[in-house]
Amino acid sequence: xxxxxxxxxxxxxxxxxxxxxxxxxxxxxxxxxxxxxxxxxxxxxxxxxxxxxxxxxxxxxxxxxxxxxxxxxxxxxxxxxxxxxxxxxxxxxxxxxxxxxxxxxxxxxxxxxxxxxxxxxxxxxxxxxxxxxxxxxxxxxxxxxxxxxxxxxxxxxxxxxxxxxxxxxxxxxxxxxxxxxxxxxxxxxxxxxxxxxxxxxxxxxxxxxxxxx
Length: 213
Prior knowledge:
It is built from 9 helices and 3 strands; from the N terminus they run ααβββααααααα. By secondary structure, it is mainly alpha-helical. The chain has one domain (3-212). The protein is 48% helix and 4% strand. Strand 1 and strand 2 form a beta hairpin.
């Protein structure tokens, strides 16, 4: 990704996520995290300690905003303007590979292309890391933020991710869903950071975002 595109990503409020290392985690670790998460309390209970998971916790870990309002749960196509319906149809059915290719290929030399790059990146980062699903296609949930581009940095991304984690673990535990979506990578980063720094004073802890340390 070019430096110009990286600057745009930072301006969107996702600079911390550029520190994400290649993640190859055994699925059993994710299952153990899911089994340790107490629904209704949003608490991670492990043999080592107990951690309350809040939107701010996720924001601190990933360097994303964790205040203000949550995004809508999904897009209602009928409520969109004609211009937004065109945007919706443009991305409908796209896969993560489609988004990756478009994100790398698109130029950012003019305002229109920069806005499109932002939309592509928002979809990409959700599918690749923040809100990935076992179905490798853009969902209505993924599309919701791209219609709020004027205020994209002000929305509660930490709460958005937490809602998805809760939904995913609920499906796994209560609905006996076999697969666990990879949003638990965010939970894993939080767990490792809190475990490592549990007994340290605030001044001794690494700065935010935790993923960069």
